[in-house]
Write a structure and sequence with these properties.
Elements (H helix, E strand, L loop, with lengths): L5 H12 L3 E5 L13 H15 L3 E6 L9 E4 L13 H14 L6 E4 L15 E5 L5 H10 L4 E4 L2 H6 L5 E4 L19 E4 L8 H10 L4 E4 L5 H11 L7 E3 L5 H10 L2 E4 L9 H8 L4 E4 L4 H4 L6 E4 L5 H9 L3 H11 L2 H17 L3 H5 L6 H20 L3
Length: about 400
């Protein structure tokens, strides 16, 4: 077995430092970044811009007009087919368009955020990273399990990852936001806030009941266009509206920030094991504490007693509201900035990409040599630092 020469050591370091070539595939439903609703698209937009700012080359496939710093952009739909959300065909069209656009490009890794796209990973030589943006129980999890090792799956919380360990997980990376774009608010609007889809799993009806019992005004904002959402709203939300409970529609980026800043607390009475709640991060970025039920990723996002109050039963939400309103809003902001700023997300995905891209380039060479004391500092440290970032996220 040979000893790695200084020249090969330098080559390994140069390889680790070179810009990456990344193919990014977004879902077709909303623009990137979205104007209003679109959590995945917002995450993709922040990730793309962060990667480009670090010198990487990004080829993005999405819908609607170009809205990011990606050097290469292909739009599958001039106007995103938002009204067809849930239909199969736009996903299939997106997968086919992405395959055509990315074919022949020299890429190190493809990051696919769609449902149908990962089916094409089996025919590629380059690695495909898939972020599990939704639940991984039931059929969605069965799908990822059956994709096997053809894709490298990233969890958005450790709670999600633990719920289906058979998936080919390679890392856990929390979704993040650009904290600087969220204004720090005083919470002096004299209202509590609920933001989210109107679905029984989100628990808007519980938020209304808790706010009313606490004698507090509640503002509701969120998406309301799918049949299931309209049905739930009509049955469980509309009858509860009144002078103390107001629905303001789906909030765009500007309105959302205004609502967070003025709210004394965000209510998050989630009724399922939600893998990640971006609204909690956005609220804390504005200094707004969280009142939440202990489900899914909530304990990973909220520091109980510091950036919010977590309870186990809906009957405890009323007392939790008064406790949350007394918390230091500056702690909420600092927590969001240190744990959930987009720069951290970009760094962790960068580590995932590089680790996979190098797998067939540097790793093979390094496993054939026995490092000496002279090469430990220049080679081993480089190969160890990347996995450290992954272990810190639960890989």
């Amino acid at each position: 077995m040979a000893v790695l020469s200084p020249e090969r050591s330098k080559a390994a370091l140069d390889q680790a430092a070179r810009p990456l070539r990344i193919g990014m595939i977004a879902p077709p439903w909303f623009a990137v970044p979205p104007v209003g609703y679109g959590g995945i698209e917002a995450m993709v937009g922040g990730l793309v811009d962060g990667l480009v700012s670090r010198g990487h080359q990004v080829s993005l496939v999405a819908a609607g007009p170009a809205g990011t710093k990606a050097q290469h952009y292909h739009s599958t739909y001039e106007v995103p087919p938002s009204e067809r959300l849930g239909d199969a065909l736009p996903e299939v069209v997106q997968a086919a368009e992405a395959a055509n656009f990315l074919e022949g490009k020299r890429l190190d890794v493809i990051h696919d955020h769609t449902l149908a796209g990962p089916l094409l990973a089996r025919g590629r030589e380059i690695p495909t990273v898939v972020t599990a943006h939704g639940p991984v129980t039931g059929e969605p999890g069965d799908y990822l399990v059956r994709l096997g090792r053809t894709v490298k799956v990233v969890a958005i919380s450790n709670a999600q990852r633990k719920s289906r360990p058979q998936i080919n997980w390679v890392a856990t990376v929390h979704n993040c936001v650009d904290v600087e774009t969220f204004p720090f608010g005083s919470g002096d609007g004299d209202y509590l806030l609920f933001i989210g889809r109107f679905h029984p799993d989100k628990g808007a009806h519980l938020a209304i009941d808790a706010a009313r019992r606490a004698g507090r005004r509640l503002v509701l904002a969120g998406k309301l266009n799918e049949p299931a959402e309209r049905e739930y709203f009509a049955v469980a939300v509309a009858p509860r509206l009144g002078p103390d409970v107001e629905y303001v529609g789906e909030a765009d980026a500007v309105t959302k920030r205004e609502l967070y800043s003025g709210a004394s607390a965000l209510l998050f009475p989630v009724q399922w094991e939600e893998p990640f709640g971006m609204v909690m991060v956005e609220a804390m970025a504005c200094g707004t504490p969280i009142v939440a039920l202990r489900r899914g990723s909530v304990p990973e996002v909220v520091v109980d007693g510091e950036t919010g109050i977590i309870v186990d039963d809906p009957s405890d939400l009323v007392k939790a509201i008064s406790k949350a309103e007394r918390l230091d809003r500056r702690r909420c902001r600092l927590h969001a900035a240190s744990r959930f700023d987009v720069s951290r997300m970009v760094s962790e995905y960068e580590s995932v990409y590089r680790n996979l891209a190098e797998d067939g380039e540097i790793s093979a060479r390094l496993t054939e040599v026995v490092p000496t004391a002279a090469t430990i500092a220049s080679v081993v440290q480089t190969r160890v630092e990347t996995p450290i970032a992954l272990r810190a996220t639960g890989a």
